[in-house]
Amino acid sequence: MSEKVRGALILLGFALIAAVAFFWARHWQSEQLGFVRIDPVVDCDLRAGPCRETAAGGSVTLSIAPSDIPLMKTLRLAVVTEGLAARDATVEIRGLNMDMGLNRTVLSRTDAGRWEGETILPICSQRRMEWEAAVRVVAEQRIEVPFRFHTSRP
Hints:
This protein is 19% helix and 44% strand.
């Protein structure tokens, strides 16, 4: 086999790998966008206790422990779904007054309708940081239920 043919085959192989990676990434992104977003829960304070919102004929409850939601310490997230045949649950925490990057926690099922996981929130340069914890549940529908809270830098 000549060097030209060998080089062309190697280039073709890399192009094929790049094309497969591109289409896989597009497929993964389209799945991430397929959630029906519920209006944010505004009348509940996660620092005072769990917050519950109705969605898709059922309800989603989120709690964060410890309740003072400290920065740079492990936080335990718990989601309870009622009236939903949930197959998967994640929590995406987003900074509202400053982009703090992706903070996605894939939750593990512990009991029927109960999901748990752990995360850590970073320290921000702002003294008070506003956050949104978007609970994403895959059931008959793919729903996203956002819960808002704040943290204060010591």
